[in-house]
Design brief:
This protein has 5 helices and 3 strands. It has 117 residues and is mostly helical. The chain has a 3-stranded parallel sheet, covered by helices on one side. Helix 4 links the parallel strand 2 and strand 3.
């Protein structure tokens, strides 16, 4: 959470962190972000339940959710898609892949350093 938050802040994103799924849902009442990044394994409410809750609420149902997790088995990836996750990245994820996904959801331009100007 901290490493990803620092990466996104360096890229100019405003980051709001939550310690678990329950905390995330409470924050979603106050602020509607452009994208939610979630792990699967969290205390109190796991990422699958978080996505189910996001999809069941009219205010958040269309919110893009990217799962970032060490659970790499196909059954976890399939279940994440079934409950409504938009993307599934395994840890360690490629920073460029995450930044490209976020740029697509936020309308921001992202050009990897290795790409020609």
């Amino acid at each position: 959470r901290k490493v990803t938050g620092r990466l996104l802040e360096r890229e100019g994103y405003r980051v709001i962190t939550a310690k678990d799924g329950v905390d995330a849902l409470e924050k979603l009442v106050e602020t509607l972000p452009d994208v939610v990044l979630s792990d699967i394994e969290m205390p109190r409410m796991d990422g699958f339940d978080l996505v189910r809750n996001i999809r069941s609420d009219a205010c958040t149902r269309d919110l893009p959710v990217i799962m970032i997790t060490s659970r790499l088995a196909e059954k976890h990836r399939s279940y994440a898609a079934e409950v409504g996750a938009n993307h599934y990245l395994g840890k360690p994820y490629q920073e460029e892949e995450l930044l490209t996904l976020l740029a697509g959801y936020t309308g921001r331009e992202y050009r990897p350093e290795s790409a020609p100007a």
